[in-house]
Amino acid sequence: MATPPTGSRARGVDFLSIDSMLTEEEQMIRDSVRAFVNDKVLPIMAECFEEGRFPTELIPEMGEMGLLGSYLEGYGCAGTSHTAYGLVCQELERGDSGIRSFVSVQTSLVMFPIHAYGSEEQKQKWLPKLASGEAIGCFGLTEPDYGSDPGAMITRAERTDSGWLLNGAKMWITNGSMSDVAVVWAQTEDGIRGFLVETGTPGYEIRTQKHKFSLRASVTSELYFDKVALPEDAILPKSAGLKSPLSCLSSARFGISWGAIGLASACYEEALRYGSERIVFGKPVVAHQLQQAKLADMLTAITKGQLLNLRVSRMREDGSADFAHISMAKRDGCRTARDCARVAREMLGANGIVFEYPIARHMANIESVYTYEGTDDVHTLILGQRITGHAAYS
Ligand SMILES: Cc1cc2nc3c(=O)[nH]c(=O)nc-3n(C[C@H](O)[C@H](O)[C@H](O)COP(=O)(O)OP(=O)(O)OC[C@H]3O[C@@H](n4cnc5c(N)ncnc54)[C@H](O)[C@@H]3O)c2cc1C
User: Fold this and answer.
1) Is 50 exceeded by the pLDDT of residue 73?
2) Residue 47, number of CB atoms within 10 A of its CB
3) Do 87 and 185 fall within a single domain?
4) What is the per-residue pLDDT across 130-141, written as a single tens digit (0 to 9) for each?
5) Which alpha helices (H) appear in the chain, and where do they start and end?
6) Whole-angstrom Cα distance, residue 138 to residue 152?
7) What value does the mean pLDDT take over residues 349-361?
8) What is the CATH number of the domain that holds 119?
9) pLDDT at residue number 2
């Protein structure tokens, strides 16, 4: 068996002793989520993926552990560091991207905008329930015709005597069909604003999107708004323009960059474990030079991703990280994860394609993660603009 620091299930992949750069609290949170994933998530994930089912039974425990809205202050949230939030995402995605997506959406796309742009009444009403997992939220930005270009959205909220009238549709919405509340972004006479739309409001319909190859253990839905009458106080009063949903995306993308490295680590660890036991031409797969090159490349890419994520985290904590720094981490993390999943799968030979091993599941999941929250192309354009000063989107 290879050396424990690069493949131990207890501590994870840590070739450069990055643990020593984490606080004791961050290590403790990471270890507890790691144990939760090993004990509760991994044993059921292949079945959930095959059945196309999100494991709702895990939500109360994630709430009790403080994983929902973890880095937010007050209202029943744990108030951890951004790094701790990143570590939560890393460990959850080692289990499955669907579980990490659930926590990302609840935390960064639902609780964060309510915390940042909501009224005191909205915060009191929703945040404690969302933190405990008693209530579930979703985030409606993407539309059937507009994904990478959300500023062109069609969904519109018109002022009425008693509040607002909402019309439009959203698509690809994580958690949609199991949500109690949706954070919906719509055009108004004052530009794009956020609204809280409660499930069951007349004219609001949710349809589950089925037949996915990827992120099968996650709920994805379409939201339809047909003359939905909303009260005056449904608007997030401090939301102002496209920059408000984009700030939510920055928070979610930050977590995804950590999650992607968790996925890459899971694939690397599985390839190392399997390749250490499987004998080909008289010796373990990993004893062959060609396979060692693959492991060396994976370990190096994962380690670089860990360092990038930690640096961006610490910059977020001192207030110096901006969206372009996060774009670099999201883009690089997803590229690393995609490459590691593909190479790890080939190292398992035929066993790489079956549900018994997690790699094909991760390989399918990373296609969604690579696509949502800004595709690789979009993050490339964000970096291109930062580097050159020229926007090249259109
Ligand atoms: C499983 C899943 C869950 C999701 N969850 C949510 C959610 O909870 N809430 C939500 O609002 N959305 C969600 N999304 C939507 C996701 O954010 C969008 O799919 C994503 O932003 C891409 O948009 P699109 O699919 O419309 O692709 P398009 O925007 O149509 O892009 C098509 C292709 O064109 C490329 N492209 C786009 N613009 C440019 C350009 N300027 N130059 C060059 N190439 C370009 C893209 O990179 C892509 O390759 C989810 C998506 C998936 C798959």
Assistant:
1) yes
2) 12
3) no
4) 999 999 999 999
5) 24-36, 42-51, 59-64, 82-95, 97-104, 112-117, 120-132, 243-277, 289-317, 323-347, 359-371, 376-388
6) 20
7) 97
8) 1.10.540.10
9) 41
Total count of domains within the chain: 3
Contact yes or no for 270/262 (Cβ under 8 A): no
Could you give the CA distance from residue 113 to residue 119 in angstroms, rounded to a whole number?
Answer: 11
Q: Within a domain: residue 50?
A: yes
* pLDDT band (50, 70, 90) for residue 12: confident
Write down the pLDDT at residue 6.
Answer: 44
Residue 4 has pLDDT above 80, yes or no: no
Q: What is the CATH number of the domain that holds 160?
A: 2.40.110.10
Instruction: Please indicate, yes or no, whether residues 174 and 276 belong to a single structural domain of this protein.
Output: no
Q: What is the CA angle 248-328-334, rounded to 5?
A: 85
Stated pTM of the model: 0.97
| Average pLDDT taken over every residue of the chain | 96
* Residues whose beta carbon lies within 6 Å of some atom of ligand 1: 105, 139-142, 147-148, 172-174, 215, 220, 368, 371-373, 375, 377-378, 381, 393
Contact 13, 302 (CB under 8 A): yes
The preferred substitution site among 100, 101, 110, 172 for testing ligand 1, maximizing ligand atoms within 8 Å of CB, is 172
What residue has token string 């719509």?
Answer: 186
pLDDT at 1: 38
The catalytic residues are: 373
Tokens in use for 139? 């985030």
Q: What single-letter amino acid sits at 305?
A: G
- Mutate-to-test residue for ligand 1 from 96, 102, 141, 371, highest number of ligand atoms within 8 A of CB: 371
Instruction: Indicate which atom in ligand 1 lies nearest the CA of residue 373.
Output: 17
